[in-house]
Specification:
The chain is α/β, with parallel strands linked by helices. It is built from 16 helices and six strands. Strand 2 and strand 3 (about 215-225) form a beta hairpin.
């Protein structure tokens, strides 16, 4: 009896081995995609268990705000193919199984972590449990999808205020210092370091003499609510603040406001009815009779113009991807061009939905 059971067990084992040998091998693409989708990656565990403090530190948003962004991001991302399907693209892939390595929450976390920390790809590969090609693919498609979503989401809007909204901002500034009347925002320029381009003519355009580096130049207008009202980003590093102000068309936008409303800037900008600025020593010397009054006004303008410094520090300090040198061709890469606008819009989301802004704390809570 025992011998018969042993023979039956041996026969069953042999049959199972034969079936496994005769069965067709799994699809290489399907097997590879499943290997890229670990259920217990560090990021998946973080998204399941982390509290609000951890979310803010790691992704710059609390759980609730992350979920709000995800609600807008997920439908479009899941409807967008990540690779060519049959009959699409230059080299269509016949019968490719569309299995995603990362779901929408993990893709959004990948994007936010990339922007917030500027971490190297090796760090993110360990956090997400994916390979380099998958990270590049999801980061590129995810950034472009997120940009589309943010452009149509009210909390992420970047727009100049109405006249009534501008007057409310100006009233907040007047409460901070009653000598400031009608000023509803501040303007300033900043640079983002980038690698030296190989082409000599292009590298001259990118070189910023003041900071002695190759850079991308941005011009930002902040309201006294802490929001970014207007932005011109990723211009040549050699561009001046006044030059960007002229070609961007912002002066024409500013001139649409009544003459009793204005923004404040430093001496790099041309003064006008709607743009008051700090005077330098040579300009002060031209008015000796009222120099003391002008110097007092200068002190007030310097104090209020510090709001622009707070805003720029918040933008570049929060999104530490700007702490690394951008690629030399980042001005031509749609993904790196998107990083500027995405980070600015996400900054407005943090201000509007989370109240994180030094400008807001100073001017709206005085």
């Amino acid at each position: 009896m025992a011998a018969q059971q042993q023979r039956l067990a041996f026969a069953a084992t042999a049959l199972a081995l034969t079936v496994s040998l005769l069965a067709p091998p799994p699809s290489p693409s399907l097997a590879r995609e499943h290997l890229q989708d670990p259920p217990n990656s560090a990021m998946a565990h973080f998204l399941r268990t982390a509290d609000d403090d951890a979310f803010i530190k790691f992704l710059r948003f609390d759980r609730h705000t992350f979920q709000l962004i995800l609600t807008e991001f997920a439908p479009l991302f899941e409807a967008t193919p990540l690779r060519p399907t049959e009959g699409e693209g230059i080299y269509p892939i016949q019968g490719r199984v569309q299995v995603r390595a990362l779901d929408s929450p993990q893709t959004l976390a990948l994007i936010l972590r990339f922007l917030a920390a500027g971490t190297t790809s090796d760090d993110q590969l360990l956090q997400m449990g994916i390979v380099q090609a998958t990270r590049s693919q999801y980061l590129r498609q995810g950034l472009l999808t997120l940009l589309t979503v943010l452009r149509n989401w009210p909390p992420a809007r970047i727009t100049m205020p109405t006249v009534d909204e501008a007057r409310q901002m100006a009233a907040a500034a007047a409460q901070w210092d009653e000598r400031i009347q009608g000023c509803f925002g501040v303007i300033d320029g900043t640079v983002h370091r980038r690698e030296r381009p190989a082409d000599d003519q292009i590298q001259r355009l990118h070189y910023n003499g003041m900071d002695s580096c190759h850079a991308a130049k941005s011009l930002v207008v902040y309201g006294f609510t802490g929001e970014i009202l207007y932005i011109v980003c990723n211009d040549y590093g050699s561009s001046s603040d006044a030059g960007m102000l002229q070609w961007s068309g912002f002066l024409r936008i500013l001139q649409q406001y009544p003459p009793d409303l204005c923004i404040a800037g430093d001496s790099a900008f041309p003064a006008s009815a709607n743009l008051i600025r700090v005077l330098d020593n040579d300009e002060l010397a031209q008015f000796p009779q009222v120099r003391s009054d002008l110097e007092a006004l200068n002190g007030i303008l310097k104090g209020i113009r510090m709001a622009a410094e707070w805003g720029l520090k918040q933008w570049k300090g929060c999104w530490r991807v700007f702490h690394q040198d951008l690629p030399a061709e980042s001005d031509r890469d749609p993904v790196y061009r998107a990083i500027f606008e995405i980070s600015a819009r996400l900054t407005n989301v943090r201000v509007r939905l989370m109240g994180i802004s030094q400008i807001f704390n100073v001017f709206q809570r005085t």
